[in-house]
Amino acid sequence: MNLSFFIASRYFRSKKKRNFITVLSRISMIGVAVGTMALVVVLSVFNGLEDLVRSLYASFDAELKVEASLGKSFVAEEEWLDLIKALEGVDIVTEVIEDNALFKYRDYQHLARIKGVSANYLDHGRFGQGYVWGDLELGTGQQPKAILGRGVGFFLSVDLDNEFEMLQVFYPKAPRSAGTIDPNQLYSRDMIKPSAFFSVDKEFDDNYIIAPLEFVSKLLNYGNRRTSLEIKVKEGESIQRVKRRLRAHLGEGFTVKDTDEQHAGLLRTIKIEKLFVFITLSFILAVASFNIFFSLSMIAIEKKKDTAILFAMGARQKLIKQIYIKQGAIIAFSGAIIGLVLGFVLVWMQDKFGLISLGIASSVIENYPVKMIWTDFLWTSVAVIAITFLAAYRPALIASKVKSYEL
């Protein structure tokens, strides 16, 4: 066994004196354990929230979304669409027209986004995460139907069981040079029957109404122009490989985004929050590790005679430094291992048994989401190592300067 480690472990396990220094060492270990456990748990919660956001958005958004690089819309000819559908890995291509419109139901009005989609929209497996009320269908050409976000339905007080009341949609027409005094000439108007509500996320619930592509194209006068294409990848195919093929095929005039890129801002915010939480808890862990500094300093004072004897026996300053640094490492690593194990157990129990509830009755999940990632354990360990070295170096340096003739 390494001599410096042997002496450090004997100092740590010494039972001759249950004095204040020993108690302080144990408190240091407990402080490191609690801080490490908190880091593991909080980082796992952020991982769970990130996965939850991805799953919720994936149930509304497409796996891949094609948009024009410049402008609001693009022309989608049938031959051009057939070439995209024929690309390797592409399973379903859904044409989309999306814009703001005014909706009226009885005496209530609400401004929201109308999303016109082709008939295969529901074949993407939409709304897998979330809730649906009513019949999830878009109707026929003769009787189009709309799927409303729950928030939109609430704002308009829509009654799905009312067979006679229709949802009115208003869209402003492009301004013309010749003025008119007839307000009916300033907007397009049509009616559609509500068929269902969906609830995925507040951003979508309060702002979206899904309707058939032909209905929206006629109302907005889009013709064969589309605002985007939503693409489902064949099962077993890599989304990233299909994305590269689409980009190569479409060229610079189009952007192809996966689900993460469609909400890059939100996911980046979660990652930044996770980073700042990690830094904050690391500072708290550093504060807890001040006890290591004080306990090692007091041990260095108490063990002056032992240090002098070691010097007299031929020990060098390097050995003395190693003794106290390794004793600090024993204290910190013992606490870190306990904290990592406790953090793992708590996160596992939350994942399996749902110890802590979100407390939100309308949430799509009941309990706080958690997910363990091995890199979190790695960076937590790195933080503990760095903090331990900083806390133990100064006492080790002081102890190494003890001279036998000063005793």
UniProtKB/TrEMBL annotation:
UniProt domain MacB-like periplasmic core: residue ranges: 27-152
Membrane-related topology note: Multi-pass membrane protein
Span of domain ABC3 transporter permease C-terminal: 279-401
TM helices/strands, residue ranges: 20-46, 275-302, 323-349, 372-393
Keyword Membrane annotated: yes
Localization of this protein: Cell membrane
Keyword GTP-binding carried by entry: no
Assigned keywords, A-Z: Cell membrane, Membrane, Transmembrane, Transmembrane helix
Family stated for the protein in its record: Belongs to the ABC-4 integral membrane protein family. LolC/E subfamily.
Protein name in UniProt: ABC transporter permease
